[in-house]
Design goal:
75% helix, mainly alpha
Length: 410
């Protein structure tokens, strides 16, 4: 298979449902729930619960590497996630309904972990080294663009259609259409597995250990735990403080936000093919922290909400693309789903705890305190990573002028 003929836009289309589930929960449901009296803290707790499967998905990633193939897993997971989205429109915003929404959101999010693993494995096998930055950019453009579709389009439809289930069913149906991008994408030929389940799993973890024991793998692992560029602020839930209307929220966190964040992904991917990828990630996180501080300090009106929410979305795109590019560089091939998700699942830890911290900080202080808290933790994490990187690289050997390891990552 000549992998150079596969344009990375394919991975953008395939990963869209992953973002749609998060967007529908984090924007559409969050906005609707806060309007009927659910607190920001309760909404943040629900959103954090749906992030939880992405934090632990490493444990079931070997299933994708060892069974069926990437395309079959995509079809199964895509169907489950679409049904999950559709089901979210059938529960009222009551205490019992909130519990049901949390449960359905958790299951839908769990399904998207398998969908993401399938796409990540296809991308790992189909992308040459010199295009990993751009592949990461297109991939995350689909992820964050999907978030905009799930949030913006979902909220737009929910505000206008006579029944909530209509909006969720339309959004779920659109997710099914993304599977059409599989048709012209060859199924990669994976290395032969060891005979027997236990030897196969053992080989997967040996492959993973080989990544972690190298400099790039160790740095990627450390980066996963740091609150740099998490982009966890509940912008739709606090929109009322900027007197933003439902249409504005739908636009900024939806269509416009999706376009802006996708642009950030593409720009970030392009930059990451031209400089040290972990350094790019840290700088992008610092830019996001600066934008959060600016949003906290500047006047609060609808125009400022549009401006700074867009800046926040753009910097989120930068950081997501940089992380994906860095991980693709570090993991090589082999057990792609397992290795990618060992890092990707851990990378959701700061998203999870920052979502909870943001909700707690808002309820304890206000949105200003929330943004200051997020920015401070992000800067501390960036300084820590830069310091640790210098120590590891000083002990570990030379780096080429492009910022890539002088030896293969795998």
């Amino acid at each position: 298979m000549n992998t150079r003929h596969i344009h990375p836009w394919v991975f953008m289309v395939l990963i869209i449902p992953f973002g749609v589930v998060s967007g529908y929960i984090g924007v559409t449901l969050a906005y609707q729930l806060t309007r009927v009296g659910v607190t920001v803290g309760q909404v943040a707790a629900m959103v954090a619960l749906t992030v939880l499967p992405n934090t632990w998905k490493f444990f079931w990633a070997p299933v994708v590497d060892l069974t069926l193939n990437q395309k079959k897993w995509y079809v199964i997971a895509g169907l489950c996630s679409a049904v999950g989205i559709a089901a979210m429109g059938f529960f009222p915003a009551t205490k019992l309904g909130l519990a049901a929404l949390s449960a359905v959101g958790f299951v839908a999010s769990l399904a998207t972990t398998f969908l993401g693993m399938a796409v990540e494995s296809l991308m790992t096998y189909s992308t040459p080294d010199e295009l990993k930055g751009r592949a990461g950019g297109w991939f995350q453009a689909g992820n964050l663009g999907g978030y905009g579709i799930g949030g913006g389009l979902g909220l737009f439809l929910a505000e206008r259609l006579p029944a909530p289930w209509m909006a969720s069913c339309v959004v779920g149906g659109l997710c099914l259409l993304c599977g059409a991008a599989l048709f012209n994408l060859p199924t990669p030929v994976r290395p032969p597995a060891a005979p027997g389940l236990l030897p196969s799993i053992s080989n997967l973890f040996k492959d993973l250990w080989e990544v972690m024991r190298q400099r790039l793998g160790m740095l990627a692992l450390i980066l996963c735990f740091l609150p740099v560029g998490a982009g966890a602020a509940p912008l739709s839930a606090i929109a009322g403080e900027w007197r933003a209307s439902a249409n504005t929220v739908a636009l900024v966190t939806g269509v416009l936000g999706g376009i802006v964040s996708a642009a950030g992904c593409l720009v970030g991917g392009w930059i990451c093919d031209r400089m040290n990828r972990q350094a790019a990630y840290v700088w992008f996180g610092v830019f996001q922290a600066a934008g959060a501080v600016a949003m906290a300090l500047l006047p609060r009106n609808e125009v400022m909400y549009i401006l700074w929410a867009s800046v926040y979305a753009f910097t989120s795109g930068l950081t997501y693309a940089a992380f994906t590019a860095f991980v693709l560089e570090a993991i090589g091939k082999g057990a792609a789903a397992t290795k990618y998700n060992a890092l990707a699942s851990l990378s959701n830890m700061p998203i999870y705890y920052m979502t909870r911290i943001d909700g707690w900080a808002h309820d304890r202080w206000n949105s200003t305190g929330m943004f200051f808290t997020e920015a401070a933790l992000g800067v501390v994490g960036a300084v820590f990573f830069i310091t640790l990187t210098k120590i590891l690289l000083r002990r570990g050997g030379a780096i080429t002028e492009t910022g890539k390891s002088s030896s293969p990552a795998n």
